[in-house]
Automatic annotation (TrEMBL):
Origin organism lineage: Eukaryota, Metazoa, Chordata, Craniata, Vertebrata
Main localization category: nucleus
Classification via PANTHER family: U3 SMALL NUCLEOLAR RNA INTERACTING PROTEIN 2 (PTHR19865), U3 SMALL NUCLEOLAR RNA-INTERACTING PROTEIN 2 (PTHR19865:SF0)
Species whose genome carries this gene: Marmota marmota marmota (Alpine marmot)
Compositional bias segments (type: Acidic residues): 64-74
Assembly and interaction partners: Interacts specifically with the U3 small nucleolar RNA (U3 snoRNA). Binds a sub-fragment of the U3 snoRNA surrounding the B/C motif (3UBC). This association with the U3BC RNA is dependent on the binding of a protein called 15.5K to the box B/C motif. The association of the protein with the U3BC RNA was found to be also dependent on a conserved RNA structure that flanks the box B/C motif. Part of the small subunit (SSU) processome, composed of more than 70 proteins and the RNA chaperone small nucleolar RNA (snoRNA) U3.
SMART domains: WD40 (SM00320)
GO cellular component annotations of the record: box C/D methylation guide snoRNP complex; small-subunit processome
Protein known as: U3 small nucleolar RNA-interacting protein 2
Length: 475
């Protein structure tokens, strides 16, 4: 090989190497361009990532701070903190319990105080001033009897009323609807095979405090005992020698007291269908009777002019004087006080510890008759809302009067009149004090001295709405 050829070969190799280097340069340029693009894109990505991290950084910072704080809190400090929290919870619970206990103690103390006052006969809740006079349209009139209403009672749950009349029937009424729930019809005298009932004027009724038994007494000397719910006849008590004029159950028991025109007071056990004893003392026909939870009863002595308190276990009596006329109606206000009415037009408030009236309100229902010959309207019925200062009286002067007994029963103040035409022969307050029921007739329950033709023989339900005021107090 010549030197020229040898020189050419290296040249060719160099040119090949140069030719090979050019693509590598181009690849490097392309790579560098790609790197620049990647860097550029990577910069954008870095920018986006950094922006996201900026938005999340405060929360992450908080978490980190809390973690640092937790890490910084020692075990002893954590125990102390939890102990303080526990003690605070215990303190709050004890305060709540103490408040609840104090509230309960106040309630119990108030109830115990009321119970003590009630047993002493000194409980007098102030409700009379809260009572509003009802509008005439609010009075509901229930008609069903053919003759004058003589007596009525309200069931302890205030859902029903029993009324009796001179037509010898007993009607059970629904207080809510005013509809008749049951009628015990009149029976013919000396007729066998007929259902039990009365054949003469019914003068008095009583219902037990549990609402189980109803007792009714008539002019034919009989006392009939009924199951109050179904009006089914249970027993007939005989023993009085004249018209049965008054009946009352001892509160909380099935012990029944009865009085009669034969001047006696009898004691019965209704649950055992048995007679217990007879007490004597009145000098004339006894007109009315009432009783509460004590083992005693009070009677209105009619024309003998006395009120008597009978102590059943001792078989003794206390005699009270005050009215000038015949004492025809009586009602206990609480265990220590009572109200009575007479045909001399007077209303009296009594304490069982004093023989004379605490208050004697004469001509309570006004006067009637020609000038110079005026006579007072007879007080034919009285009622009292148990353990309160509210009293109602009835006559035949076309109204029922409501009264407030002053503190300690030292006065009797007239509140307002409720217009009702006819003889008000019976008055009863509901247990709740939400309404007053009046038995109205054209004639007096004991006779036919006058007759008011425009009167309706009816049962009137009088609502007693209360005005908003301070809570009722007791003394």
């Amino acid at each position: 090989m010549s030197a020229t050829a040898a020189a050419r070969k290296p040249g060719k190799q160099a040119s090949r190497a140069g030719a090979a280097a050019e693509p590598s340069k181009r690849r490097r340029k392309a790579d560098s361009a790609g790197d620049r693009k990647k860097l550029k894109d990577g910069g954008k990505m870095n920018e986006e990532i950094s922006s996201d991290s900026e938005t999340e950084s405060p929360a992450q910072g908080k978490i980190e701070e809390e973690e640092e704080e937790e890490l910084e809190e020692t075990v002893q400090e954590k125990k102390l903190r939890l102990a303080k929290l526990y003690l605070e919870q215990l303190r709050q619970q004890e305060e709540e319990k103490a408040e609840a206990r104090e509230f309960e103690e106040d309630q119990v103390a108030g109830r115990l105080k009321e119970d003590v006052l009630e047993q002493r006969g000194q409980l007098q809740k102030s409700v009379a001033k809260e009572i509003q006079a009802p509008a005439p349209d609010d009075i509901r009139v229930l008609r069903g009897h053919q003759l004058s209403i003589t007596c009525l009672v309200i069931t302890p749950d205030d859902l029903a009323i029993f009324s009796a009349a001179k037509d010898c029937t007993i009607i059970k009424w629904s207080v809510e609807s005013g509809q008749k729930l049951h009628v015990i019809p009149r029976v013919k005298k000396d007729t066998e095979g007929q259902p039990p009932g009365h054949c003469t004027h019914i003068l008095c009724m009583a219902i037990s405090s549990d609402g189980k038994y109803l007792a009714s007494g008539d002019r034919s000397k009989l006392i009939l005992i009924w199951e109050a719910e179904s009006c089914q006849h249970l027993y007939t008590f005989t023993g009085h020698r004249d018209a049965v004029s008054g009946l009352a159950f001892r509160k909380g028991t099935h012990q029944l007291y009865s009085t009669s025109h034969d001047r006696s007071v009898k004691v019965w056990n209704v649950a055992e269908n048995s007679y217990v004893e007879t007490l004597f003392g009145h000098q004339d026909a006894v007109a009315a009777l009432d009783a509460l939870s004590r083992e005693c009863c009070v009677t209105a002595g009619g024309r003998d002019g006395t009120v008597r308190v009978w102590k059943i276990p001792e078989e003794s009596q206390l005699v009270f004087y005050g009215h000038q006329g015949s004492i025809d109606c009586i009602h206990l206000i609480n265990e220590g006080h009572m109200v009575s009415g007479a045909d001399d037009g007077s209303v009296a408030l009594w304490s069982l510890s004093k023989k004379r009236p605490l208050v004697l309100h004469r001509e309570a229902h006004g006067l009637q008759g020609m000038p110079g010959l005026e006579q007072p309207f007879w007080v034919s019925s009285v009622a009292a809302l148990l353990n309160t200062d509210l009293v109602a009286t009835g006559s035949h002067n076309n109204c029922v009067k409501l009264w407030q007994c002053g503190e300690g029963f030292q006065c009797l103040d007239h509140l307002f009149d409720i217009p009702l035409v006819g003889f008000i022969n019976s008055l009863k307050f509901s247990s709740s004090g939400d309404f007053l029921v009046a038995g109205v007739g054209q004639e007096h329950r004991l006779g036919r001295w006058w007759r008011i033709k425009e009167a309706q023989n009816s049962v009137c339900i009088i609502p007693l709405r209360r005005v908003a005021g301070p809570p009722a107090s007791s003394s």
